Amino acid sequence: MKNCFCVLFAVFFLNACTSQRKQEKDLYAIRTTDDYLTFPIDVNTRLPKFILWTFEENGKGYLAFPNMSKEILFYDISSMDLVKKVEFDAEGNNGVGSVYGFQIKDFNNIYIASPMLPIIYVADTTGRVKSKIEYEEADDGTMLAPALVHTITYSPMYFIGDSLYIPQTRSYQLKGNSPYGVMIDLKTNHKTVTPLKFQCVVKDEEIPRSTGGGKVSVCYNGGSFIYSSEVSDSIYELSRDFSDVKSFLAKSRYLKSPKVEVLSSDVDVEMLLKRKCELPAYGNLIYDKYRNVYYRFVFPEVELDKERSYLDIYHNGRKQFSIMVLDKDFQVVGETLFPEYSYNANIFFIREDGLYISVSHFKRPDFDENLLRFQKFELTKMNI
Predict the structure, then answer these.
(1) b/e per residue, 302-333, with b = 16+ CB within 10 A?
(2) In sequence order, which residues have a C-beta less than 8 Å from that of residue 362 and are 6 or more positions away?
(3) What pTM, to 2 d.p., does this model score?
(4) Strands of 245-249's sheet in order across
(5) pLDDT tens readout for residues 264-294
(6) Which long-range contacts (CB under 8 A, 24 or more apart) does 43-48 make?
(7) Would you give the DSSP letter of residue 242?
(8) Greatest CA separation found in the chain?
(9) CATH code for 11-381?
(10) What are 4-15's pLDDT values in tens digits?
(11) Whole-number Å distance between alpha carbons of 228 and 10
C-alpha cells in the first residue's frame, strides 16, 4: 500500500445515507448585528492565529488562547478584561513543551496537548503539572499520534463522563490507517480508536508539494461525533460508542468541487501557500448547542493578487468564506456568503446569544493589532 495524504473515509458504509434537502430558498440565514466584543491585547501578546476556546466556571464565561507558545491568557467575556495570564515551563518536572493546543475543564484542570508527543499534561493556573495522560498505543495495537488541537482546524478534546476523546493527526507510520480519534477511559486506561480512518489522496513524496487534503474537523453534539473533511461534500456521524457510522451530503452552493493540487518540485513556500488560499475547500464544522444546528465553513475558489505574505492571508481566514447551516438531521437549511477580507474564519466561538466571529483581519481598514474584536451574528429564520 502506498503512503499518502488524507481524506474522509467511512468504514464499509456501516450505515450511510446521502440525502440533501432540495429547496429554492434558504430557511435560515446568519445575520450581522451591531454587537461587538473587544478584548485588549498588550504589547507582550500576539493576536491568536489558531482556534481559541471558551469555558464556564461558577456561572461566568471565559475566553482563553495561547501566546508565544509559553503561556495561556484568560479573559472574562462579560467584562472583556484580562483576568489571568499563566506561564508554563517548557522543561523540567512542570515542563509541557510548547503551549499551542489545549482544552479547559476549569481553572484547576487545563489539558495541554504536546504538539510533538502523544501526551496530554493536566495543569492548573499556577502552572503546576498535576498529572499526564500518555496514549502512544491503543488497546488494539494501533499506534497513536499527537493530538490535533493546536492548528486552525476545529478539533477539540472532549470530556465525556470518565472518558477523554482526543482527535488525531495523520500518522505516516500507519500507512493510511490512522484513526480520526481515540477515546481514553481515564479510570481503566482503555484506549479505543474510531472506525473512521484517514485515507490516501496523494503519494508520500508529493505531500510537501500538496495544497491540502488532510484537514478533518470534528464536533460533538452530546450523543455523537460529526466529522467534516476539507475535500468531501459529505459529513459523517459516528455514534458515541463508535459502533455506527452515517454519511450525509452537505454540499455548498458556492463550491463546485473541493480541489487538491500537487505543485512542481521547485515550488516555493509562498506559492504553495497562495494556492492553499485560492483552491476551494471545506473548513471547520462547529455545533451550536443553543440552537441545535451546525455551522460548516466553506472556502470558495478565489484568485489572490500579489501579497507580501500569503501566510498572513492563510492565518487570517483566507479571502472569502461562507457558512452553511445544517439542522439537527444534517439537512442544509441555509448558507450565507461573507464579504472578502472582513472576518477571520479561523477565530470564532458560540454563546447563548449568538455566533461570534473575529473581525481582527489585517486587511480591514479598522484593524488594530492591540485589539481582539468579535462581531455577533444571529441565526434568523427566513420569511418564505
Answers:
(1) eeeeeeeebbebbbbbbbbbbbbbbbeebbbb
(2) 312, 316, 369
(3) 0.92
(4) 216-220, 224-229, 234-239, 245-249
(5) 988 899 999 999 999 999 999 999 999 999 9
(6) 44/68, 45/73, 47/360, 47/369, 47/372, 48/347, 48/372
(7) S
(8) 62
(9) 2.120.10.30
(10) 444 334 333 334
(11) 12
